[in-house]
Write a structure and sequence with these properties.
The chain has 185 residues and is mainly beta. Helices cover 5% and strands 39% of the residues.
Length: 185
């Protein structure tokens, strides 16, 4: 597991066992992840498909009392996955980290509560599968504008495909975070 520039965000690579038929991998083990410091009760799995290269989803979060930690992986295709620290008072507030998650590399990103999460598709028809530590609660969902955190998105001449909601999310500089560093989320 390589070190993360954000100590609470983890880039993980579960082991895979392959042969001429393909591979087998255990994508989640509560005991195994607890040994890595991820001792979270996940209660919901989500699966999304983004058809176009350059689709940007996020930067999303759910506020307390329904704050979510997420364990994200890419089941098909490839994405650039990002976490941004939005905990007021955090020494890393506003900082981000990103990693390529793909079906090929098997990487996963653990994003704790108190971080905004988003991704950009790098291949067509990319499927994202992620675990959440709380149930979807529309009244608590929020967003920070995708281009307001200094993220080095791999756009290279691509115009991002955004939802209407993501296009008008507040910039980080104007954002009033519901999270406080050190507080239970």
């Amino acid at each position: 597991m390589p070190p993360s520039p954000l100590p609470d965000v983890l880039l993980l690579t579960p082991r895979r066992f392959g042969d001429h038929r393909g591979f087998f991998g255990e994508t989640y083990s509560k005991r195994g992840y607890a040994e890595l410091g991820v001792d979270v009760d996940f209660v919901q799995d989500n699966h999304s498909l983004s058809a176009q290269v350059g689709t940007v989803r996020g930067l999303h979060f759910q506020a307390p009392p329904a704050a979510q930690a997420k364990l994200v992986r890419c089941g098909r295709g490839a994405i650039f996955d990002v976490a941004v620290d939005i905990r007021r008072g955090s020494p890393t507030y506003g900082q981000w980290m990103g990693a390529e998650l793909s079906a090929e590399n098997g990487h996963q990103l653990y994003v704790p509560a108190g971080f905004a999460h988003g991704f950009m598709t790098l291949l067509p028809d990319s499927e994202i599968v992620y675990k959440c530590s709380d149930y979807y609660a529309p009244a608590t969902e929020g967003a920070v504008r995708w281009d307001s955190c200094g993220i080095d998105w791999p756009l290279a001449g691509i115009t991002p495909v955004l939802s209407d909601k993501d296009a008008v999310a507040p910039a980080l500089a104007e954002f009033k975070s519901p999270f406080t560093y050190g507080a239970a989320q």
